[in-house]
Amino acid sequence: MIVRPSLHWFRMIFVLRGSVLLDILPQLVITTGFATVVTFLHGTLFERKIPLTFVPFSLIGLTLAIFLGFRNSTSYARYWEARNLWGEILNETRTLARQSLTLPDDASHARSFVRRLIAFTHALRHQLRGTDCKADLSRLLEPHECERVAEAHFKPAVLLLMAGEWLRDMRERKLIQPVLIPAMEAPLNRLSVALGGCERIASTPIPFTYAVIIHRVIYVYCFLLPFGLLDSIHGMTPVIVAFLSYTFFALEALSAEIEDPFGTAPNDLPLDALAWTIEATLRETLGEREFPPKPQAVDYVLN
After folding, report:
1. Is residue 133 within 8 Å of residue 155, measured between CB atoms?
2. How does pLDDT run across 240-266, given as a tens digit for each residue?
């Protein structure tokens, strides 16, 4: 995620980091260069004038804008849902940590339960990004617990199971009144729902055909555009083509980037920072004051 102070409107024009300009620069240079060649040749190709006007491009541009708007809206909806799910994980783990300290007759057993919740958060982060969670689990769990989780394919689900087993043990030892069990089962169930929601977003991309259609139409539109503008604006054709190409290419690149909100691209969710916040607040609930190092933004990008 891009983390920047508020910029002056003039400086905002020249921002590169997080603007996807560097990602689309090759396509932009090619289309602008092609428009320059078309302008120099006065719209002729193999000694034949290409008979195009701006009218069909107005109609196609409207359709293309609708398609791009749909894809960007869909991608941002996935991004925002993912952020809401992680917000729910924060709320529910806080609730469970508080309950583990206040509902049992003996709060000395809460530490292992809360550490399982923290481990769940990190395991989910690593699962969504396809990274190794061994280091985080080894500092949070007992060795036998680490071995059990390491053998699992869906590690966050196993950690939720282990949290439920803690609740069962507390009930069997009569340290929590049976009437209070549903109060802690409800947040655990909502964590399971949040886990499933994150897995659904990560494993279900936007149908590929949408990306193919938009990609093809954008390139055909941008390469034919100079033939339709040349007779009207003459030497300004490459400039207008560059501006319109930047708009379409950038919107396509941005929608593709935030389609998977759990990645490590500059505009994706800062899962490292979100997991750190959850760990810090749960440790503080336990009365601890030593937290792992807080993630820092590198070149204005916070992971």
Report:
1. yes
2. 999 999 999 998 988 888 899 998 888
Q: Give 245: exposed, middle or buried? Use CB within 10 Å, 0-12, 13-18, 19+.
A: buried
Torsions phi, psi of 298, nearest 5?
Answer: -110, 120
Report the C-alpha gap between 29 and 246 in whole angstroms: 10
Q: What is the pLDDT of residues 129-144, one digit of tens each?
A: 999 999 999 999 999 9
Cβ neighbours around 16 below 10 Å, total: 9
Could you list the residue range(s) of the whole structural domain that residue 266 is in? 26-285
The answer to whether residue 177 is domain-embedded is yes
Q: Could you give phi then psi for residue 231, rounded to 5 degrees?
A: -70, -15
Task: Indicate whether 299 belongs to any domain.
Answer: no
Number of domains in the chain: 1
